[in-house]
Design a protein that fits this description.
Blueprint: H1 2-5, H2 18-41
């Protein structure tokens, strides 16, 4: 929508491979969840 709002000269936008992005986001959420559980249990330093 930014391209359309500012009328930029792009005809086609590049494809974003969401498979890799989703994998990375879910891995980061998993690690932060494990960290939160460690803090709640008092295991974290």
């Amino acid at each position: 929508w930014i391209v359309q709002a500012f009328e930029l000269p792009f005809k086609t936008l590049p494809d974003i491979h969401t498979d890799y992005l989703l994998e990375l986001v879910l891995a980061m959420l998993g690690l932060s969840g494990v960290r939160m559980v460690e803090k709640i249990k008092g295991v974290a330093k």
